[in-house]
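hey can u check if this looks right to u? its 310 residues, i copy pasted from the old doc so theres a chance i mangled smth
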Amino acid sequence: MKLFVRMIRFQGGLIALLIGICATAFKANAQNVDLFKMQDEQNKKDAKEKTDITTSIFKTTRLINGQSIENTGAGILDLKISHRFGTVNSGAYNFYGLDQASMRIGLDYGITDRLEIGVGRSTYNKEFDGFFKLRILRQSTGKVNMPISISIASTAMLSTIKGPSVSYPINFSDHLNFANQVLIARKFGDYFSFQLTPTMVHYNIVATKAIPNDLYSLGTGFRLRLSKRVNLTGEYYYQQHPLQGYHNPVSLGFDIETGGHVFQLHFTNSTGINERSFITQTDGRWQNGAVHFGFNISRVFTIVKRKSVK
């Protein structure tokens, strides 16, 4: 009986010893393990395994007059109405430009998330225009780290305004002009975005041989967030060789988001709205008040709904 009691005591002591050893080991190991640090490292590892695309670099597909890096989404139709009043320096008789106006109405459609097409009609020079815009690169972080977004845009413009009578025949192609652009943009946090737009405007026919058919310019634009729904925007195109009597276009405005559409208010020295008109035929100057007040309205409609992913 005594032997049995001794065996039980021995086994109890052995178990207590093992428990003590395990507790000491766990305590020592716990002091060297930071669970929060481990979770943080795991999150960073997971983030590197996926690509996070940067969105809302600008609020609409047009910065003010020119194209922005943004595209209309796949299956989305965007109705755009752009309106320019007369110049502010036209005086009280013309109600400081409000008695006069030029406008463009356009329809843009997203074929895919990368490809957008559009058509429009401008009262200035009675021009029709059609364009496509294609995303090449998208700013992103994570598995694919891309610091900038790049798109290309190409626009064809057809002037239907009647010109003076001439002795030589006028071909249909003589009414056509083109613009080709590269859009390079980056979003710096939630509050600031910047874009560069190298541009070439091609005239199929020019008045004299002294005027080149191809005109090159460099556009710049920015967006500065002022509040959740209001952004300050700016746009400027520097022309390498401006046509005589015309100036570099400068525009400043505000983007206001009001559920379902974006309302843009701005001042610009450009009367025309398509690429040929506002880049190469800007005749106003800010210095003497030849500036137009205007607005753009964008309203989107879902034409093709995306298929839900289960």
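Residues 51-292 form a domain with the Porin fold (CATH 2.40.160.40).
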